[in-house]
Amino acid sequence: MADRQDGTSKGWGRQGLRHLRAHLARGWRVLVTRGPGQIEFWIIALLIGICAGLAALVFRLGIGALQHLAYGTDDMTMASVAGRLPWWWVLIVPIIGGFVVGLILDRFTPDGRVRAVADVIEGAALDGGRVETREGLASAAASIITLGTGGSSGREGPVVHLAGVISTYVANRINASAMTGRELLGCAVAGAVAASFNAPIAGALFAHEVILRHFASRAFAPIAISAVAGTVINRLRYGGLTEFDLPRTNALGFYVELPAFVVLGLICALVAAAMMAAIFRAETIANRIMARTGWPRWWRPTIAGAMLGLIAIPFPHIIGVGYETTAAALKGDLGLWTVIVFALIKAVAVAITLGGRMGGGVFSPALVMGALTGLAFGIIATGLAPQYSGNIGIYALAGMGAVGAAVLGAPISTAMIIFEMTGDWQTGIAVMTTVSLSSALASRLVHRSFFLTQLERRGIRIAEGPQVWLPQKMRVTAVMRALGTRDAPSADLLRNMVAAGQWIAEGERLDFALRRFDEAGAAFLPVIQPARDGAEPEILGALYHVDALRALNTALAAAAAEEHG
What we know:
Layout: H1 2-34, H2 38-71, H3 78-82, H4 87-108, H5 117-126, H6 133-148, H7 156-173, H8 178-197, H9 200-212, H10 217-238, H11 258-293, H12 299-312, H13 323-330, H14 336-355, H15 363-384, H16 393-408, H17 411-422, H18 428-445, H19 450-457, H20 466-473, E1 481-482, H21 491-499, E2 504-505, H22 510-520, E3 524-529, E4 538-544, H23 545-564
Parallel strand pairs: 2-3
Antiparallel strand pairs: 1-4, 3-4
Helix pairs in contact: 2-6, 2-7, 2-8, 2-10, 4-6, 4-12, 5-7, 5-19, 6-7, 7-8, 8-9, 8-10, 9-10, 9-17, 11-14, 11-15, 11-16, 11-18, 12-14, 13-15, 14-15, 15-16, 16-17, 16-18, 17-18, 20-23, 22-23
């Protein structure tokens, strides 16, 4: 009897397991074919936030491990320890790092370029929330090596793209629509940024403000869930401590100092614009040198590493993210001339690192530059009117936010990052004053932000809005009327128009086609496959002006629905 009952229970167990597998398979099919429901999407957002947080944590630990191996310390004491190392070691480590970075990028990317935040913005706008996977993984590896061996950049850019790789994998597995793919991308970025800076509010805002470039109520809850999940991952490893510990004496002297922060905000905008211009100038010069010499691509980061090594011998503060220098500036532990020299040398080092196509991002260097700029201004301002002045650390804090916001083009999320990284909410009015003025002025000096200017230099105009970038992603072949269909023009008419030079190639986008319609003044244009090896061009169909406008209007309506949904 006992054996029979035992067999019966095993049978029920196997049957229950089969039913469970059947239910899971059925649920997966529904998820792939119909897309996730609200609760399912929140669960996916939670899992993506955890994965993105783990990726950011592994990235940070990888940098620290490599820094310990190369220099015997981490970023918080890098300048102090590296300054006591033999000069030849400080020189050779960045050269080796640049050489390895060059080999990685040459092998695994088509253009030898690190993927970072600008590429994630492009993926959100033009590629349905998808980013490059192979190139993203190579960029993460290159950035770990760069920051671990003497590069002068930040860790947030590659981490954001690495999070995008995670969301891209999930979006492809569930066959997500473009709207869902963008929301998944926002979730991943929120989790990664929150984990990187221990800043959940800023992580969620960054995803909306910088990546999606709009605030959508539909996406707010899952993005917030991912940001919280990423923060939990960070705090399980590092606890609830803030990145920087400030003296608790920061207070505005009867708010009399506010005019000084107005001036500081304008100065920080100029510093941010100069820093961005230096990076782009270094990029342009390096491109010209590589084109004229014909050197292999892997030489570029190797030479950049050699230049950084030479600079690091007298100025070891340029190595890595620069948290030790930032912390010293926030505490007011640096003198005026030291601050000025450190800021100039740091700007040069960042331009060499990024222009030399080593790894890393630009946000952390912007925070370093902002803290140094704010401290230098604070030393001068408090010296001129000591009776009305509070702690000079407040100027460094405000400058850090102002330069960072101007570089990112994200005043809201940057201000929140500063608050959450320091835990100092009492000086919010000073930070918001400098951040708002700096962002307003810097947006006139550069094309909205560092990332949007990067895209503009590649011919991708996202800053103007969806009415500009949507036609850039729509192919004419998706809108044309195919040859031979009932409502298409006759083949003879299209052939005559091609002979007269009125046609559009099949690979062109809608933005080019609309310009051609303005020039030709025609109701429709033939779409052809260009001639090859002397053969006649093949006529594929006709693109009607009214069809192109209707397709653009439909896409704009969908973008508006996503933004306001």
